[in-house]
Amino acid sequence: MRNFKAIFKKQLKDTIANPAVLMNFIIFPLVALMMNAFASPDFYGVPDDMREMLEAGMPNMAIMMAAMFAGMAIIPSVTGFIAEDIERKSLRFLNMAGLKPAPYLLGVGSVTFFLSIFTSVAFGFISGMGGGDFWILVASLLSGVAASIMLGATIGMLCKNQQAATGLSMPVAMVLGFGPLLATFNQNIARILHPIYTQQLNVIADYIQYGGGDAPLWQSFAIIWANVAVLGILFAIVYVKKGLRG
To answer: pLDDT means per 10 residues in the chain (246 residues)?
Structure first.
């Protein structure tokens, strides 16, 4: 617990000192708010008799942006933080002092997860969802954030410095973020991405928007948390093998 608190405080200071990371938690909801406003029939003065038809066929931009936030924005941030520890040799000293993977990952990831709670709730309000759909959206986003933290941490362990972290994490984040959008138009891509947590975020988003899907909701959550478990184990293995060389 003492190790966790020390890592958490250090991570909180690093996050506050990095405006670029903080902006990720603000920009995505703001873009979602603007996109929802521009997609609204009120913006174009659509007559009432056409409003219902347009609203039924128009996807909720806030939910789409929320899924991209959980799948894209978190990975480079976490990767960068861990790569910074490796570059400064901080991780090597922590590892030599006997710090286990779990408290280190919890300390680094909990700050990001904590900030993501506020962003996820903001997405819930911007999307206009109410009742159970609101909480399903928030829970799915936080589940996706947990998986992204695990993946970002694992990628960070494989990088020697922050420059390498950016070069490796951004393509991964782009594929995971935009892959589900392509899967919307191509069933073959959807089948390939089915076991990936960002695709399941897309499935849950469709469930919320259109009131159901081909598979039960719990299945998507189960796949996301299976991703979290696998990535957590992978991080622990990489941490033990590479920590002393960090």
So the answer is: 76 83 88 77 54 54 83 88 82 71 84 93 87 90 95 90 86 88 84 91 84 79 96 89 59
| Number of residues written out for the chain | 246
Using CB atoms within 10 Å of the CB of residue 11, give its burial: 0 to 12 exposed, 13 to 18 middle, 19+ buried. buried
Q: Is 200 exposed, middle or buried (0-12, 13-18, 19+ CB in 10 A)?
A: buried
**Residue boundaries of the structural domains of the chain:** 2-245
| Crossing angle between the packed helical segments 162-183 and 61-68, to the nearest 10 degrees | 140
Q: Please enumerate in sequence order all residues whose Cβ is within 8 A of that of 103, keeping only pairs 6 or more positions apart, or say none.
A: 1, 3, 4, 7
Dist. CA 128–CA 115, nearest whole Å: 21
Contact predicate 201/176, CB 8 Å? no
Task: Give the count of alpha carbons within 13 A of 101, CB side only.
Answer: 17
Torsion of CA 47, 51, 52, 56, to 10 degrees: 150
The closest of 81, 115, 107 to 8, measured between CA atoms, is: 107
Residue-wise DSSP of 84-126: HHHHTTHHHHHHHTT--HHHHHHHHHHHHHHHHHHHHHHHHHH
- Residue 47 confidence (pLDDT): 54
67 neighbors 28 (Cβ within 8 angstroms):
no
